[in-house]
């Protein structure tokens, strides 16, 4: 496994892989790798000849007062996990390498960020789109593998690739969960044992929403009221949003359609957690 730190070295290495007629997959990460990340990497291995992961805590996607300085990091552990799963190249640039002096360009998707997490994290998705565009230009992949847990991020990157005619295929991988149902996240490490138990309210809410939808309830406000009551019955919780959306546009829906995105953001203690699912009338689809 190679570890590369400069844009020049990474681009040169990707050029060599492409010149050899091999395909490249990338899994962009901010490190502190968990099983969810590893599942993305396994998918990348299945779909390409060479697998690159990036480890870069991107400062431009953190707002004032967010956890940039305290975001969990474990480079030694990350490299060990990457090696064990069969990663070929790890790109670990510095902030100065990614955003050199006088850097002044950004990528902005107009409408998709005006929903869900974008409402409470202004500028966040500009930072995400910009860094991912840069990573695509640096690593030159044929395929990018992203998690459906960050559904809005997946939608925004997919839109960016389509709108800017980037020659990259996007593969979304279903959310990986802990045995008790909590969606895997690097931020789960912030939770105390008591908060960890309360955090299960997100998956319980998803299950309840699916049950209500299957039983014939299709009014968003009725399901949302039930989910709010469930979440707030758990200690340490505060709701950022519970939203029912069109899965393509992310526009809010008052009446649920045949396939509707349920997306949630809940603070458990000081930790902000997100989760989502596609509510479907036919579970066997």
Q: Main attributes?
A:
alpha/beta, 285 residues, 10 helices, globular, 9 strands, 6-stranded parallel beta sheet, 3-stranded antiparallel beta sheet
Q: Compute the separation of the termini in Å.
A: 39 Å
Major sheet attributes: 6 strands, parallel
* Category by helix and strand content: alpha/beta
Beta fraction of the residues? 15-25%
Major sheet: order of its strands? 1-4-3-2-5-6
Give the mean pLDDT.
97
Give the topology string: H per helix, E per strand: EHEHEHEHHHEHEHHHEEE
Helical residues, percent:
25-40%
Number of strands: 9
Radius of gyration: 19 Å
- List low-confidence stretches: none
Number of helical regions: 10
Shape: globular
Architecture overview:
This protein is of the alpha/beta class. Helix content is 38%, strand content 20%. It is built from ten helices and nine strands. It has a six-stranded parallel sheet with strand order 1-4-3-2-5-6, with helices on both faces. A three-stranded antiparallel sheet has the order 7-8-9. Strand 5, helix 7 and strand 6 form a beta-alpha-beta unit. The longest helix is centred in the middle third of the chain and has 16 residues, at 124-139.
What is the secondary structure topology, with strand pairs?
Blueprint: E1 2-4, H1 7-19, E2 24-29, H2 35-47, E3 50-55, H3 75-85, E4 89-91, H4 95-98, H5 117-120, H6 124-139, E5 143-147, H7 151-163, E6 169-173, H8 193-198, H9 201-214, H10 220-232, E7 237-245, E8 259-268, E9 271-280
Helix pairs in contact: 6-7, 9-10
